[in-house]
Specification:
This protein is mainly alpha-helical. Helix content is 56%, strand content 5%. Strands 1-2 form a two-stranded antiparallel sheet. The radius of gyration is 30 Å and the shape is elongated.
């Protein structure tokens, strides 16, 4: 199913979608710092949930040595101060939400494909059927015709 028929426009559309997948989940700007009329979009984009779960797996329960001065920085503090996340996020729940989004997108893709292919399925089922293989009846050849065709092909 094509949304954009032109190749250049489809690449442009893909870049806009990829930009939204990185901008709204809090990758560049924290969700709490976004305006209210834009911030709600981060909750309908699946990369927000994978990003939150990934950050939790990387930073939670980790201690970081800051510039080798012996100062320890807790990973939970990094999550709350730098990324604005709560100290504890259930990473498996975030993974489950992401898989739910994947299933939903696949289901929508299948339904769109089915809708687009229905005209072709209807024309294929309405094709005339004949005896034998295909829509044409078998033709009986006379004796010796095979030999004549083989001689003609060699020549």
């Amino acid at each position: 199913v094509e949304i954009v028929k032109d190749g250049m426009l489809s690449v442009t559309f893909a870049m806009v979608v990829l930009g939204m997948l990185f901008l709204f989940p809090g990758f560049f700007i924290q969700v709490k710092e976004m305006p209210a009329w834009v911030g709600w979009m981060s909750y309908i984009i699946p990369t927000k949930y994978s990003f939150d779960g990934y950050l939790h797996m990387v930073f939670y329960d980790q201690d970081f040595d800051v510039l080798n001065f012996g100062v320890q920085l807790d990973g939970a503090d990094v999550l709350t101060d730098v990324f604005g996340q709560p100290a504890h996020v259930d990473a498996w729940a975030m993974f489950g939400v992401l898989m739910l989004w994947v299933f939903l997108f696949r289901l929508v893709h299948y339904l769109l494909f089915l809708k687009a292919s229905l005209p072709f399925l209807k024309t294929a089922s309405a094709a005339p059927t004949g005896t034998g293989s295909g829509a044409y009846a078998p033709v009986d050849k006379k004796e010796g015709e095979d030999d004549i065709e083989m001689i003609a092909e060699k020549a």
